[in-house]
Queue: 2 jobs
Job 1
Amino acid sequence: MTTAVRAKGAPRTGVDWFLLVMRVGLIAFIVIGLLGFVAQQIDPTNAWATWRHGDEGAARLSWAQFQGLVVTGLSQGAMYGLIALGYSMVYGVLGFINFAHGEVFMIAAFTGFIMSTKFDQAGWWDSGAFIPAMLFTIVVATIVATIVAVVMERVAYRPLRGSPRLIPLITSIGVSFFLQNAVILLFGPGAKGYAPFPDWLDKDRINIWQIGESDTGVPEYLLSVENKKLLVIVVAAISMAGLWYFVERTKTGKAMRAVAEDKEIASLMGIDVDRTIVTTFAVGGAMAGIAGILWGILFKSVIATTGFLPGIKAFTAAVVGGVGNLGGAMAGGVSLGGAEALAPLMVLDPWGIEGPSQLRDAVVFTLLILVLLVKPTGLFGERLSSEDRA
Amino acid sequence: MSDINANVLATEAAETIEDLAESASGLFNDVDRDRVVRYGSYLAMALVFVSLVGMAVGLDGRQILFWINPDVYVNHPDGQGLSLGDVALWMWPLLLGWAATNEVVLEGMQARVRGVSDLVTGFLVGALGGLGISFLTFLMSVDREINPENGVPAYGARDPLVNWNEQLYIMLTFNRGWTFALWAWPLLAGLLAMVGASFRVMSDPIRKAITAALISVLSVSVFQFLVDDLLEGVGETIADPGRISNFFESDPSLGRPRVDSAFDPLIDFLYAKTGGLRLEGVILVAVVAAALSLVASYLVRGRVKQARQAYFDRPLAERTRSSALLMVGVALALLIVPFFTGSIINELLANVGIFLLLALGLNIVVGLAGILDLGYVAFFAVGGYTTAVLTSAGRGESWPSWVPLLVDEGEPVVGGWLIALVLVMVFAGLTGLLIGAPVIRMRGDYLAIVTLGFGEIIRLLFLSDWLKGYFGGAQGITNIEGADFGPIGTVTGVEPRSVFYLVAVFAAIAIYVSWRLERSRLGRAWMAIREDESVAEAMGINTVNMKLMAFVVGAVLASFAGAIFSAKVGSIFPTSFLILVSIIILVVVIVGGMGNIMGVIAGSLVLIGVLGGPKQPGLLQEFSEYKLLIYGVLLVWMMLQRPEGLVPNVRRSRELHQEEFLQDAWLKGEVDTDDEGDDVATEVAPA
C-alpha cells in the first residue's frame, strides 16, 4: 500500500518527520483559525484579532451572511457531489482518474445554454411553458452528456484496457484538452449567458422564522434560502437517491459492483464487462449532465473552461469521501462545498489574510492534501478492488 | 460461313462482356464494405469537424502554392492555388484513403496482392466522406436566408456555432451553390482518397519519390518564412561576410540596411510576392525531391540497413563515442544557425530552448522515475519569481532590506543574474522537497492530481492580494533586468539571439546531466522504480529518497528555465504559469518520447517550434488558435497508437509492448515457455 502513511512498525525517516510536522502544522493552522473566528465573533477587538488585523480588529460575520455561505456551500457541494459520482464510479471500476469527466459536465452546461437561448427565442422560456421547457432542457443535456461520456469511453479508453495505469490518465488529460478547445472553437471563447430565468426561480427566497431586523430595516431570518439553491440541493438529492437505488438494488448495479470488485471473476460469472463499463460511463455522464444544468441555474453562464476546476474539485470531493464509495462522494462533495464557502472567512480571515476568497481554490487543494496526509482512504473509506490500491 | 463467323463473334463478345461484368463484380467483392463505411464515416466526421471549428476558413487566408503563375494573374481569385485551409480539408481524404487500405500482414501468412480493389476502396471511402461535406452544405443552404433589403445572407444556426457562416458556405461550395458541392465534394474527396490508396499499389521507389516530392512541396511552402529567412541570411552573409561580427551583437536584420542576398533570385523564383510557392517553384521542389529520393533508393538501397547493422555490431563504448560526436556536431550546427536567421526565428529558437529545458526536467521526473507530475509549472514559476524578486527594482515593497536586490540604479549588476541563479536553485530544490515529500508515497494518479493542486496553490499565492506586497498580485513584477555577463554581453529579450545562446548553454548542461544520470546508479534506481516500485524496494532501493531526488533534479532544471524566462521577458505575471503550461510540457515529453533525450529534443522542436508554446507563437502562426486542440488530439492519438513517442526509449517501449515482444519472441522460438513451446513455434513460423 503506497500512501502517505507510514507502515506500522517501520522506522521513522526524515520524510516521515517532515510529514508529521506538515500534518500537525496544517491542523494547527485550521484549529487556530477556527478558534480565532470564534473569538472574533465574540469580541472583534480581542488580542488575536488586533494582532492579525490591526487596531480596528476583525469584521464580525452576521448570522444572515453565515447561513448564506452555508447554503451556497451546500448547493455547490451538492453539484460537486453529482460530478464526483462519475469520477468515483469510473475510478472504482477502471481504476483511473477520468480527467475529461469535468468536460462532460461543461458540455452539459453548454447544451443547457443552447437550449435555453433557443427556447427563449421561441418565446417559451419566460412564459407558462417554462417548466416543460426546463425539464426538456434537463433531459436533452443529460442525454448529450451521456452520449459524450460513452463515446469517450469507446474511442479513447477501451483500446487502453490493460495498459499501464498512467496511460489512460494521460489520455484523459488529452481528451479533456480536446473537448475544451473543440467547444471554444465551435462556439466561441466568450462566456455564454443563459436566457434569464423567471423570478420565482432566480430571485425569490424561502424565508423561515424571522429573528430580527437589520439596522436598515431589512428583516433577518433564521433561514433564508434562494429558491434556485434549494432546487439544486433537492435535484441533487433526488438524483443521488436514484443512483443509489440503481447501483444497490438493480441487477445492472449489482453487475457494476461485481466488475468493480474483480473484472475477471465478474466475466466468469457471465457479466458482460465491456457493457457494464459503458453503463458506468453512461450513468456517470448522466449525473454530470444534471450537474451541468444545475451549474447553469446557479451561475447563469457557462464558458468552455467551466469544466476544468469543478472537475478537479469534484475529484477532490470523491477522494475526501473515499473513492469508489458513492455515499462518500456525495458527502465529500457537500463537505468540500462547505469548506470552500466557509474556510476563507472562518480560517483564513482570522489569520489576517487579505482577500481570503481569492484563495478559495487553494483551500480546496489544501483540503485534498490534508485528507490524503491524514486519512488517505477518505472520510468514509474506499471501496476499491485490491488491484486498484496498488 | 458468315453466320458461323457471326455466331463465333457473338459468343466471343458475350463472353468478353461476361468476363468484364465478372471482373467488375469481383472488384466490388474484394472491397470490404464494413471498412469502407467505417473509414468513410470517420472521414465525413473529420471533414465536418474541421469545417465547423473554423480551421478551413481560418487557414484559407494563407495561400501556400499556386497552380497558375500568380505573376500572370495578379489579382488571383480563389481556386488558382492551394491555401492552408484547403490543405486542412484535403489532407483527410488522402490520409484516410491510405489508412483504409492498410492491412495487417500476419506472420507466416501470404499477403494479399495489392490491386485495383484498393483504389476502389479508397475512392468509395473518399466519396462517402465527401458526402459529409455535401450534407453540411445542404444543411447550410437550408438555413441560409438572404436578407431582402441588403442581400446579405444570414444563418439561423450561427448563434451557437460561430463558424456556421457565409465564408464557410462559399469555401465549401466553391462559390457555386450547394448543388455543385453535392457532387463535387464526393468526387474530389474520392479522387484524393484514391490517390492516398494508390500509395499502397505503387512500387517502393516510386512511392518514396512521390512522398518525398509531396512532403517537400508542402514543407517548403508551409515553412516559407523559415526557408526565406534562412536563405536570406545565408545569402547576405555570402554577399557581405563582414556582417557576422560580435557574438551577442544585435540582430543584423534589426536596424541594419538590408544587403542584397546571393539567393535573392532563388527566393524570387520559388515564392510569389503575395506569399506561397509559384508554379515553377512547386515543379522545381517536387522534381528535385523526387530525383533525390529516386537516386537515394537506387544507390543506397540496402546499404543503410547494412551500415546500421555494422554500427550496432560495434562495441558499446565506440557507439557511445560516435553518438556523442554526432550530438556535438548537431549542437555546433545549431549554434551557427542563429547567425543567419532574423530576430523572429531567433525568438522562436529561444522559446524552443526554454521549453526544451522544462521538458528535459520533466523527462527526468516522468520519463525516468515514472512520477506523473502535473504541477511541474510550479517550479518554473518559483524560478521565475525568485529571479524577478532578486533582479527587479519593481518588485513588491514588502521585502525587507536584507533581501538582496541585484540591480544598481536601473542597470543590471555584472554577474547578478548568476548570483540570483544560485538562490533560484536553492528555492526550487526546497520547493521540490516541499511538494515531493507529501506526495511521494501516494498512488500514481493521486500523485498526479495532488501535484496539479500544488501547482495551482503556488500560482494562486503569487496571484493573491495577500502576498501582493511581495509578488505584485495580478500586476506581477515588471522591470526585470537582463542577465549581465560583463564583457560577454547582456542577455535580454530585446536580443533573442543572446537568449538563445544562454538557453543553449543551460540546455547543454541539462542534456549532459540527464545523459549522465540515466547511466548512473541513481538513474537505474529511477528506472527500477518506474518499472515496479515494490520490486525496486525489495531490491534495496530507498524509493522515497530516490523519488525525492527526481523531484529535486526536475525542479532545479525547471527553475533554470524560469530564471531565463524572467530575464528574457523582463516582466512576470501569474498568468504565465497556468496548468496549461504543465500539460503542454507533458505533451512535448510524451510526443517526443518519454525517457529519451533525443525524443524530448525532437518533441520540443516539432511542437514548440512549429505549433508554438502556450502563449508563444510557433513557426505556424496561423495555427495559434488551433494549437491547443491539436495538442489534445496529439496526446490522445499518441497514447492510443504510439505510447512510446516519436523517438522511443528502447527500454520503455519494451515495457509498453511487453506482450507483443513476448509474442514475437515466442513465434520465433526464442523463448521456451514450456516443453511444447518449441514445437508450436516451428509450426507457426516457418523460418
Job 2
Amino acid sequence: MSTPLIEIRSAPHVKAPRTVEMIMRHVVWSLLPICAFYVVQYGISALASIVVVTATCLLTEKFFIRTGTQSGQLTDYSAAITGLLLALTLPPGFPLWMGAVAGLVAIVLGKAIFGGIGHNLFNPALVGRAFVQAAFPTSIATYTPSFLTGRFTEFIPSSVAWPLMIPADTVVWMQSKQLDALAGATPLAKWKFDGVMANAVELLTSLSGHMAVGPAPALVLLCGLYLALRRFMDWRIPVAILGSAALTAWLLYAVDSTRYPNPFFMLFSGGLILGAVYMATDMVTSPVTPRGMWVYGALIGLLTVVIRYYSGLPEGVMYAILLGNAASPLIERITQPLTFGRGAPGRSREGTPGYVSRTDADAAIPKKRFLRNKPKK
Amino acid sequence: MKFLNYFRGETFARGIHPPQHKETATMPIRRLPFAPRLIVHLSQQVGRPARPLVRVGQEVVRGQPIAAAEGFISVPHHAPASGVVEAIRLHPTANGPWGEAIVIRVHPGSTQEVLWEQPQYLPALDADELIEAVQDTGIVGLGGGVFPTHAKLKVPKEWPVDTLVVNGCECEPYLTSDHRIMVEQPADIIAGIGIVRQLLGGPRAIIGIEDNKPDAVEAIRARLPDDGSVSVEAVPTKYPQGAGEMLIKTLAGREVPPDSRSYQIGAYVQNVATLAYMGALMPKGRGFIERVITVVGTAVDRPGNYLVPIGTPLRFLLDYVGARDQSLEVVFGGPMMGQAVGSLDTPVTKGVSGILVFRGRDVAERAARKTYPCIKCGECVECCPMGLNPSTLGMLAAKRQYELMSERYFLGTCFECGSCSYVCPANIPLVQQFRVAKRILREKAAA
C-alpha cells in the first residue's frame, strides 16, 4: 500500500453550509419582488433609478476592491444590497445623477473608508441617503404620485436632469396630468404640514392610486418574513422596532388623540417598515448579542416616533437607524450574554439535592410538561 | 417544535444540530484481528507517563501488565496480545510529539483469550481498595478526556454527590461506538454504575441518552435494577449534549459554576463506555486492552464498529477497513472536537472513540472556502452552549488581546466544542483561535 498524503487540519472537521455569500444572495432575492412592485408603481423612472444607483454602488465597490483598500469581493452581493436598498429609499423621480452621487457616497463614505464588508459602522445605504438629503433637500422631498398613466412610456421630468443641473419642477408636469401639487406629498408630510391623514389599509398595500409612497409595506413584511424564517435575518430587530414605535405612538395617541396620529398610521407610513426590516437588520451595523438586538430595536423605534413628532422633518427613520448604528457598540458592551453557570444560583429549576428524575415526575405529574420522555408503548 | 425544548426545561440553551451521519449505528461490534506489531504508548492519559515493567526481548501474554502507574494521576498499561517485546522506543502520537512506547511483536498464534487476570469480589472492598482496583484496570475517561478514571472517582469527602449522571449522549456526528456498547452490553453498564455508586455512597444514577438512539434506551431500560436507583432519560438530540456540564444541566437542572468541579454541585458525570468497561473488567481483575471504535468516513469502504486492540497502528487498521486514496484526513475522535493525525504509524490509544477518514478532496473543498471579516450575524452567539460571545472573542483574538478575552469575555469557560467555528458563515476559525489564546494564557500563567 503506497502511503497516501495526510491532511492535517484543526477541529472542527465539519462545517455548516451557510456562507456570507449565501446570506447576502438571499437578501438580494428577497428584495427583487419589492423592486418589481416599485417599478409597477412608478414606471421606468423607478427602474432607471434602481439600475443607476445599484450600478454605481457595484462599480464603486469594484474600484475599491481592485485598489486593494477594502475587503470582500463583488460576488458577496453586499454592494448590490446597498444599491437596491438605497434606490428604494429615494423618491422615484429623484434625478439619476443625484442617485449616482448617493450610490458613490454610500460605498465610499459608508463602507470603503472603514475597510469594506464587516468593518463599517453605519449602514452604507443610509449614509448615502443622509448625504443626498443634506445636499439636495428639495429633490429628495419631491415625491410623485404612484400609478400615473403613461408611467411606462415617459420619465418623470426630474429624473432625467443633466448632471449637476437643477431638475425640472414636477408641479407643472403634474398639473398636466390633472393632479394638484398636494398629490406629490408623502402621507407623512401631508399629516405633518397639512393635518391630512391617510387610511391604514391603503398605506399597507400602496395599491390605492396616486399616493406618493415608497415600496409597499405589506410586500416588505412578506419578504422580511421569508428572510426571518430562513434565518437570514434576525427577527428580533424588526419586532423590537415596530413594537417600540407602536407602543410609543399608542401612548401618545392615548394622551392626545387629536394632536397625534393613530399607531397604525405611524407604522405603515414613510419608510418605517422598510427601515425596520431591511436597514436596521444589517448584520454588520447591529449588535451581535440577542439582548442587544432588543435594546437596539427599541431605541430605533422610539427615536423614529420622537423625530417624526417633535422635529422639523416629516420622516425620522433614517436618522433613528443611524443613531442606533452609532449606539450599537455601546449596546453590545452592556448586553453581553449571560455565561453558563454565572446566573443567579436560584435560576436552576432543580437546584436542591433532592432531585426527582423526570421519569418519576412523569409518573407523578401526569403528562404535559414531560411529553417527550414518556416511554413508548 | 424542537426549539421549545429549552423553554420546557428539557435541555441546555443554544447548541447546534449538525447532520448526524450515524450510518454505523446498526452495525454490530466486530473484532479487528491483531496487527503484526502493537505499539502501546506509555502516555495515553492525562498525568504522568507509565513506567515500563518489561524488558526488550521479554515474552508477554495477553492481559499482562507491561507498564505500571507512576504516581496517583497515572494508569498502568497491559499487553493487548501475546508476543515478544521488540523495542521500547519513540513513536508518533496523535498530538504530534513522539512519545515513548512499548512495541510488541505479536505471536502469529496469539488467541483472543485473556491469559492474565485476578478475579476479585468488589462489594467486599472499601473505598480506597476500590479506587486502587479501578486504577489497576488502566481505564481512563473514554469519551475523549483520557483523565484517569480512578483519580476522577476520588471525590473530596466534603462534597456529597447525590446524582450520578451517566453520559450516553454521544452527540458527536458519525460516532456510534457508545451506542453499540449500550445496545450490546447493557449489563456491563449497570455493573459499572453499581461500582461507581458503591464508591460515591449510593447516589441515584440517571443515564442520559440522546433521543436519536431509542434502541439503546430500550436495551438499558430492560436491564435496570428493580430498586429504582438507576433511571434512563431520553434527552433531546443536540450538539454538545454530551458535554458533562450540558448533560448535568439537562438532567439535573444545575449549572456548574465557572472554575468549579461538577461534584461541588452534587453531580458526577461518567461516560457510558467507561462504565461499561469498568463493569466488564473489574470483577475479573483484567486490564483495559481493547475498546470499541467507530471507523467511518467518506474514504472508508467497510465502515463499522470495531473492537480494536489498544496499540493497533493506524496503517494496519486503515488497510483492514479499506481506506485508500491519494490523500486522506484521519481524525481521532469526532468531527467536532477530534484530533487530526499526522502519521499513519500512530497507534490507537485508550482515548480514541472513533476514527474518521475523509478523502483529501472533500477536505480541500472545505478548506478552499473564503474567509470574510466578521459580519456580526450573531450565529455564534446563538449557538455557544456556554453563553459566550465568540464574535467579540474572535475579533479580540485577531488583535491578540488575550488578557482582555479571559478577563472580560470569560475565555476560560470555553470548552472548545467547536460550535462557533461550525456555524460561522464568514468561515472564521473561531475555536481554533481560542485554543491558541488559551494555550498562550496558560503558558503566561505558568511562567
